[in-house]
Specification:
Length: about 350
């Protein structure tokens, strides 16, 4: 019996697999690690007094659905190393535990192997990497996950000492020619806002400041204006800091006050660096194996129509996306594939 192969068990891949399975298709989901969820499987919920749409609950529901679906076979710790056959009848060779598993009679493939964080790259090193007061946003997730009950005042975030001030610096690993990422990563503005809200929930007197180049016009921030940001008690400074130094027991941020036209400093107890999204190194191999093209930054796009090859790209393998956009793209790709299957069965022509 023919089946659909989904490569990558992150948000986009798992979403596509679940939608395809719900339509009655046999799906083989191939994940290189031993768990589903991709980059965000260790993230913590950002809800405080109300939900602020981090969408992690949707991801959890999808992962559970994939694990429980009788139509989805999951190959964990599997690495795809070869593709043979032709559109409508592919064979994949998957390496697992030193052996090879053949996934045969594959009529379509969804490629969804995601991105890598700036901090995971060799060049992605924060200032004062030996100072535990300078952390990546993903490290702050460790504190987020400690909350067993969002409303329990005793279940506080534990930093070792109570921070009186925190600074978030945006656009690390993106919006930079030097970092080979002139693009916006589309997640950092909303991500830092949510994290600042959580910190202020546990530390009401905390002084929170976010340095930004400009607010992304995507995702959560499409529906948030500066009045709402001001009500949350978060200070926004429109520039990227020039320098960070250690002064006594503080981290001192040097920046240009662009409204006043002068240099100023801001001291903080904690510095959180955002993490841009970068293309996965495996994209270069995928480009050759699946006849795809790399863009100027290393993300993938198809050389010919996906309906013609039966190989579809889903999620942030094509470029940066937040959780909501990635879920949406996983569903969109699944529906495109299902529409093409229906057209083929009816003998019609695909609308591409």
């Amino acid at each position: 019996m023919s089946r659909i192969a989904v490569i990558g068990g992150g948000i986009a891949g798992t979403t596509a697999a679940v939608e395809l399975a719900r339509a009655g298709n046999k799906v083989t989901l191939i994940e290189k690690t031993d768990t589903l969820g991709g980059n965000i499987k260790d993230y913590g919920c950002k809800a405080v007094d109300k939900c602020i749409k981090c969408n992690l609950c949707l991801v959890d529901e999808t992962i559970i659905a994939a694990q429980n679906s009788p139509e989805i076979e999951i190959i964990y710790q599997g690495l795809v190393n070869d593709l043979t056959g032709k559109p409508g009848d592919y064979n994949l060779s998957v390496e697992k535990d030193g052996d090879f598993v053949e996934v045969e009679n594959v009529e379509s493939i969804v490629l969804a192997t995601g991105f890598v964080k700036w901090s995971d790259l060799e060049t992605g090193t924060p200032e004062f990497s030996d100072d535990n007061r300078v952390i990546w946003a993903s490290q702050l997730e460790e504190f987020m996950r400690r909350r067993a009950d969002h409303s329990d005042p005793e279940d506080i975030l534990k930093f070792g000492s109570k921070p009186n001030s925190v600074v978030f610096i945006q656009c690390n690993g993106s919006r930079s020619i030097q970092e080979k990422a002139r693009y916006c990563s589309k997640i950092c503005c909303g991500y830092s806002y949510r994290m600042a809200r959580v910190l202020k929930h546990f530390y009401p007197d905390l002084e929170a400041t976010i340095f930004f180049i400009d607010l992304q016009e995507a995702g959560y921030f499409l529906d948030v204006n500066f009045a709402e940001l001001d009500q949350a008690g978060i200070n926004y400074v429109n520039c990227k800091p020039i320098d960070v130094s250690k002064v006594d027991d503080k981290l001192r941020v040097l920046y240009e006050n662009q409204q006043e036209g002068r240099m100023e400093t801001l001291d903080a107890d904690l510095l959180v660096l955002s993490e841009g999204l970068h293309p996965n190194d495996v994209n270069e191999r995928w480009s050759m194996l699946f006849n795809m093209q790399l863009d100027a930054y290393g993300f993938l796009y198809p050389l010919v129509d996906e309906e013609e090859t039966g190989i579809y790209l889903a999620g942030s393998i094509k470029g940066p996306r937040d959780i909501a956009a990635t879920i949406s793209d996983g569903k969109r790709v699944a529906y495109r594939l299902l529409k093409q299957k229906q057209l083929c069965k009816s003998g019609g022509l695909a609308d591409v």
